Amino acid sequence: MPSVKTKYFGTLPCAEGAVFDFPQGLPAFEQEKTFVLIESPEGAPLVFLQSIAHESLCFVALPIQVADKNYQLAIAPEDLEELSLDAERQPVLGAEVTVLALISLHDELLATANLMAPVVLNVNMRRGLQAIRRDSRYSHEYPIANHPSQRNAMDAQKNAAEEVC
Amino acid sequence: MLVLRRRAGESFLIGEEIEVELLAVTQQGAKIGIRAPKETVVLRKELKITQEQNAQAARGASLRDLEQAVKKLHP
User: Is the pLDDT of residue A152 over 50?
Assistant: First the structure.
């Protein structure tokens, strides 16, 4: 089995099924065309998108439904086509796609998830892209671990935004 | 913010060299054409935000810090 050098876990064997092609790379990382999805029990619920080309590049992510259990997909038809998915409807989470929110850690108190631009993986074709939403329903800096009062404030803001939509 | 009202086919200028034309308006949105010098970067704002977010996300953190942060999510 081929192996991959990882930022967080040393060298890992990498199953073919965990390797995803990103034909467009990711915004700001357009040259990075291949990532391995690492789901390790000790890291759960975090998952990791490790670049094959660069050991030092590893995105930390949460399954979108963990970041926000009510998350509604709205992947643009062009993005669905790019992923070889039916552009007429939203794909089925789990069966057709895995959807990840990339995590940024700003300081020890604040981690945010990018719900505006989730990474969508076509699990059957093993192809991925970052699907930027066309609406403004979700934040690109959704606090996932924060001071409770701030979190409630963000939730309230988000609810307000949903009512507008 | 400066607000202009334009109909399809009408345009406006930004400085000497950039022209923005409203090509069509449909229920799905407005189609906009931009004429600008080659060296002018035109980027959807959400793409710029995503680039910045990705750069921030790639900076990473120690695994321990991340786990701590996520533990607060699922105490």
Answer: no
Please give the Cα distance from A23 to A34 (Å, whole number). Answer: 8
Please count the other Cβ atoms lying within 10 Å of the Cβ belonging to residue B16. 7
Task: Count Cβ–Cβ pairs < 8 Å, chain A vs chain B.
Answer: 86
| CATH superfamily for domain A3-164 | BH3618-like (2.30.290.10)
Contact with chain B for residue A32, Cβ under 8 A: no
| pLDDT above 70 for A162 | no
What ipTM did this prediction achieve? 0.80
For A50-78, give one letter per residue: b (16+ CB within 10 A) or e. Answer: bbbeeeebbbbbbbbebbbeebeeebeee
- Token readout for B64 is 């321990």
> E strands within A70-118?
97-107, 110-113
Rounded to whole angstroms, how far apart are CA atoms A65 and A9?
25
Q: How far is it, in rounded angstroms, from Cα A165 to Cα B21?
A: 28
Q: Is the dihedral of CA B59, B63, B64, B69 positive or negative?
A: positive
Calculate how close chain A gets to B11, using CA atoms only, in Å. 24
